[in-house]
Request: fold
Amino acid sequence: MATMADVARSAGVSVATVSHVLNDTRPVLPHTRQAVLDAIDELGYTPNTLARSLVTSRTRSIGLAVSAISNPYFTEILQGVEARAREHGYGLLIADPHDDPEHEREVVRLLHERRVDGVIVAPSADPRGLLALLARHRVPTVFLDRLVSPAPALEDTAGAPAEDEDTRAPFRFDQICAENAAPMASLVTHLAGLGHRRIGLVAGLPGFSTTTERINGYRHGLAAAGLPHDERLVVHGDSAAEGARRATAALLSLAARPTALVTANNAMTIGALRALRDHGLSVPDDLALVCFDDFAWAELFSPRLTAVAQPSKEIGAEAVRLLLERLDAPDRPSRTVRLPCTFVHRTSCGCPDTHSEKGTVS
Reply:
């Protein structure tokens, strides 16, 4: 098995130079760097990542905890994270917390034990235990999609304080998400502009910042259109297809059911469509439908789905950028970054069948 010394001899450089190329610890002339890389390739040298991490305190790995298996929206985010991490020479360790607070804390603890340099997490609806764990171990962290608020007196479940107020600075983290309220309001005002006066909302899981912000956007849209807010028209699909199916069925059972429906994520759009099919209703003839979250097959539906598209891959890429900057400057102020969404105008809202029209909403 080739060693670092073998690489150095083959490239005609010192072992220290090989180390600098591998660890990016000092600038190396381009032709020297290429000679080292060529020698590594020729000899089949594999760096000892564990040994290198003991010297540099970095493993060049990032932990990613998102519910990508159960939520297709996070699949695109994962692609953005992976592409940007690879661009900077980082690998990924991925875990699915299933939006469960206890499991979330456990999988992030396991990622930390595997010495990842930092973590990117889509937090659950109750992230208090997660925040306590991250604060106690000072893990560089970026939260994506769902925002969290730091609490001043977090306790780890093991009983240890999350931070020592006498000796430690506050735990700082960064956050990245899409705009939620204004894009949701745009969906509502679009339906109101088509003449709808009873517009239902299938909202997400209570506790998520996305749920709260999209409900607020729905209300703002109603107010902007001069429509009253009827609590009976807001139901929770718990951010899942089956939950949305039940919630939509409840809306359809009202004596004065809605004539238009907004779903607050792509999984719930599927559930709402199933409920409409169960009741023998068609879109948009019997009920107009628009959704927050565009997805790859929305163009293939008949009618094609009018939607708000989130910049999923960009959110993932930005999460990596924020985390790398946090690693370089651990004490920098916390940041929350929001990216604009795009309104994709198709036909499920009842508009004529023309080519999709897109416009930025923020």
